[in-house]
Amino acid sequence: MSTPLRVGVVGLGWAGQQHLAAYHSHPDTELIALAGLEDGPRAKLAARYGIEHAVADWKDLMEVDGLDAVSVCVPTFLHAPIAVAALKRGIHVLCEKPIALNAAEAQRMVRAARRADRVLDVAFNHRQRGDIQKLKALIDEGRLGRPYYAKAWWLRRTGIPTVGSWFTRRELAGGGPLVDIGVHVLDWSLFLLGDPKVVAVSASTYDLLATNGFGAGSSGGYKGKTGAGAGEAPTFDVEDLASVFMRLEGGGTLLVEASWAAHRRDGDQFGITMYGTEAGAEIIVDNYAPKGDLQIFTDDGGQAVATRVPVRRGRAHTAVVEHFVDKIRGGDWRRYDGGGAAALARVVDACYLSAAEQREVRPTPDEARRRGTPD
Description:
The chain contains 12 helices and 14 strands. Strand 5 (92-96), helix 5 (103-116) and strand 6 form a beta-alpha-beta unit. The protein is an alpha/beta fold. It is 32% helix and 25% strand. It has helices at 14-25, 39-49, 58-61, 79-88, 103-116, 130-140, 170-173, 177-180, 182-192, 316-330, 339-357, 365-370; strands at residues 5-10, 29-35, 53-55, 69-72, 92-96, 120-123, 147-155, 198-206, 241-248, 253-259, 269-276, 280-286, 293-300, 303-309.
């Protein structure tokens, strides 16, 4: 317990850098390995954090002696191959969202974690926001009564990430904004609602703007790269807007919207509106503000009352890494096999199947097979 966990990171982009900084600041971890294809950035990051083993190929990172844990921060199509390879070597894994391209790959990762008796965790950093955590505490205190309806969203006007890259190719990303940013919305919404099971979904997806060249760019503080219009990209076969109606176990309802491109007001916004039996609540975050606007809505003798609640700034990937380390140190590794993230992957698969076949779909293994991703 007194020996620091020896960790490695695969990926040099924004997500990889968040993991590197979080491990570097953690008193119980030691960064010993880094993998990424770009020679210059890899060398700079290795020097900054004093990393001894800096390699181009992730397979070489797996051969580093004494590696206890690894973060997988690369394009989605690489999540399952790298995670499974690490788990087979007895290495704990923290994977960036989404867990995998589809439910079948996610389940393969879960099985590998169970067989290896190692932790498989997924970095849903948005649930670590201060506004989300504060609202969760209020819900747990009973301030809303029983929440039964929620509408949550992440909408960009022009925010397609790197048009023509892996992000906009279904075979490499798994989908468009629904699986990219919508999975964050789904995660924090179900977290706030007490993690109910999604029993059925009805979804619509659209690509009417991106394929005609609208939506590439950087608005409202979005940190992605700008580029040519999607119509000029070599490949764009994902949606630019998704809308989903979800039936929840116990009778609740969740609506989710996610867009990379939409004719809406300028800037980017995400948030959630919730209705409970005793009160309602809303979080609105404009242009990636570190603290959102959280309000509670109640009734006082027939008069509407809106109370703005102060929130603290969240700790994002720092908290994600802390929880990952705690799970490893706790020793009860079988509790943390990635099953929750795999369940979200089944829901996302069901959404895409619903949109394709224009019908309500239950996120079950049988329905997953219809999409060509056998469980």
